[in-house]
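Entry 14. Ran structure prediction on the chain below.
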Amino acid sequence: MHPALGWIAISWYMALTTQPFAHLKALDEIAREIRTTNVNEAERIGSLIAGSAMIILGLARRSTSGILLSLAGGLLVHRGVTAHYKGR
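Output, structure tokens:
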């Protein structure tokens, strides 16, 4: 066997048998948090509709309060898209 093929076989085997980031518990917790959903379908749709309306109304105001309204709407849209709310 060619030496390079041996190295590829060892690398492939190690990739299947080891967890290179196992010592980084923070990454595991972040991945678990991203995968979990805690917002049901009705709340997601409501958040998307309300958030979109808040963004449109906020941008139409063209003021500081409009910017804040748009930012709050963006948070609702994010909640609707990801189906995850950190407050729960």
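The mean pLDDT is 78. Will compare against last week's run tomorrow.
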